[in-house]
Amino acid sequence: xxxxxxxxxxxxxxxxxxxxxxxxxxxxxxxxxxxxxxxxxxxxxxxxxxxxxxxxxxxxxxxxxxxxxxxxxxxxxxxxxxxxxxxxxxxxxxxxxxxxxxxxxxxxxxxxxxxxxxxxxxxxxxxxxxxxxxxxxxxxxxxxxxxxxxxxxxxxxxxxxxxxxxxxxx
Length: 170
Hints:
The chain is an all-alpha fold. It folds into two domains: 1-6 and 18-101, no CATH class; 120-163. The protein has helices at 10-17, 21-39, 52-63, 65-98, 103-119, 122-159. Helix 4 runs antiparallel to helix 5 (103-119). The longest helix has 38 residues, at 122-159.
């Protein structure tokens, strides 16, 4: 999504996305989930539950059966929105690397991965996703090292003074 825009000052844009939507939303959702688990009361009899299972037990403890239904709806919405987001970003990256005309190939690969993910065990799916994320770190780290001098020049220029009459730092 961020690559769709061409900011006037790349340093300002880079600083603004450091605290992007994903990080804020994740912190808020995780914090609220922890508060719900802590506030629901005594869960001392609960053993072997973690993740969404523990959260479901907390919702059920606090709100009864409707709590479990509300949580199920929220989890489904989160899962579907995550699938759409990964599909969009993945296709954009694939199209950038292999050409826009090959975007349909990514669609087929993504669809196949969704089908396989629905029949594989949760542990295997998590391991495949973790491996993919780890492999994505390799080209990103190479790019960070390669682009570090350019980023430092832009940061020095940005922090050295006013950039334009419309800048907030003017």
